[in-house]
Amino acid sequence: MSTSVRCSDAGLSYRRGLLLVEGVPAGDLVRRFGTPLYVYSGNSLRDRFRRLERAFSARRPLVCYAVKANPNRAVCGLLSRAGAGADVVSGGELFRALRAGFAPGKTVFSGVGKTEPEMRLALRSRILALHVESAEEMEVLASVARRLRRPAPVTVRVNPGVLADTHEHIATGHPGAKFGVPPEEALALLKKASRSPWLRPRGLHAHVGSQIAHTAPYRASLKVLLGLAERARRSGIPLEYLDIGGGMGIEYGAEGSLAPEDLAAAVLPALRESPLRLLLEPGRWLVGPGGVLLTTVLYRKRTSARRFVVVDAGMNDLMRPAFYGARHDILPARATRKPRVEVDVVGPVCETSDFLAKGRRLPWPERGEVLAVLQAGAYGFSMSSQYNSRPRAAEVLVTGSRAALCRRRESAADLVACER
Hints:
The protein is α/β, with parallel strands linked by helices. It is built from 13 helices and 20 strands. 49% of the residues are buried.
């Protein structure tokens, strides 16, 4: 996919040489809100959610947005109003999801390390289900439910033994991963839950990884889930749904992506005879393309070996290049005919790993120019930090010609606000 197509998909375009987010010039956003600045296209988020729903419309799935991808309340609120449910992995995310308007009955709680306070919050909030990932967790959940006198809705997360072709840090469905339980143990946990007065088994769940570009891992995982669901039915345990997780990849440079239409074509035929409802947990695919990180060029620097473009956004703002070796396309906010040269785009953090791009051919920018880092809507701000005591960036949601601040820029006072 070309950069121009990715721009269109993200609500970006050039007009009279100026980069626009929907109808707002990037330069205007920078003058109003400063940099580093995360900007999200509201129409991109909404359109991608609708496209996903259309692709799977034959099953009328429940789409539970993976809040970890981008937990901003404006982003979550937009998706909630569009009809999404929520997939959360912590008590904090559950708090955020409920504040953003996600219905508790359309919210699921994943994660291997849920605490008792988190379980209590989930049960008191009456969420759809907690994805149980170990026998000990199920025992603790039953105890919490008994003390609250409120049965816990349970989904068992299965480790299907599927190794997806993705970065090792985000492959979650293979035997060496910490997530879920093997199929035989999953069936045993369903039987145990069905015998408990404080547990209500509702479904099976699997999530094989993130940034997946092929349908084969989903087909293999679904085959395991369907087999287990049939065995549960024969054991007198009627389930309500199968949750196949998320993980659809998007285009980062040359990395492959997975269209929802292709995933639907691969998995829906296998579900034709199943009465169970389908749940999906997309995150990156929904919000990644619709986000851009705007950053200002501070200095240019040449050594005998490299050309460096030093910008005011660093690994504290966008961790993915340093952590995963991820590639994000970078464009100038003002189109130029300057020749392209090979540069490293680096941030101000005191780490050699602090870079946004290495060996990238870009127009040699002037000090003060603005660059746009694309595909930054997922795992951008949500993975950011205050490392080097740098206040976190502001976030803006653009819809048409309207730009609204949805998170203010942190100040120096915010850096020490929790300290005593």
